[in-house]
TrEMBL record:
Name listed for the protein in its UniProt record: TetR family transcriptional regulator
GO MF terms, alphabetically ordered: DNA-binding transcription factor activity; transcription cis-regulatory region binding
Lineage of source species: Bacteria, Pseudomonadati, Pseudomonadota, Alphaproteobacteria, Sphingomonadales
InterPro entries: Homeodomain-like_sf (IPR009057), HTH-type_TetR-like_transc_reg (IPR050109), HTH_TetR (IPR001647), Tet_transcr_reg_TetR-rel_C_sf (IPR036271), TetR_C_Proteobacteria (IPR039536)
Transcription is among the record's keywords: no
Keyword DNA-binding: yes
Domain called HTH tetR-type: residue spans: 18-78
Amino acid sequence: MTTPESDLCQIDRSSPRERRQSAILDAAESLFLEQGYERTSLAEIVKSSGGSLATLYELFGNKQGLLHAIATRWCDEAMLRSLEGDATGELSSVETLKAYAHRQSELMESPRAVALMRMLISESLRDREFALQIYRDLHVPALDELIELFDEWAATGRAEIDDPKAAARLFFDIVVGDSMLNTLMGVEEDWLDRDQIDWRLQPFLSHFKIR
């Protein structure tokens, strides 16, 4: 008897190790969000995931390793760094940048993202090496992708960007900088809407003559 194609799509082809890793990450993230990173013990995570402390240490090293893995997984799931689909499609440079800006804002304003950022910042303030690791692994790849795109646009005449690195940093500051800071501090809850983001981007687009 053959298995229907729709059922084949539901088959989990991950290895036992990958399933165990996901179970531990799911349990850790749930507990971190529910009761806080500092107040969650590894023993609670192991109990919730049904694994063992030895496996947790083998896969993630320690509690910081778990937090780093959770942040990396969220980043990958949300495709936070993805520009490829827009940049290689039918959109103009202006439309590409606006679409990316809207997606960045929507992703970063989610309660999950805000809670995760608070945990990452708190742990980063306590441990500089962890802060550098998070910066290298999560922020730098997104920055590099945008730098590469701006460099290409400058080379092909789609923009006049003399310093792609500085322009990429400015872009992220415009789109999520103060909104994220205000949200993390509890000063404001509402993020910029699409029209507000487009308004903020207009001087950026004009200055660099992005077409």
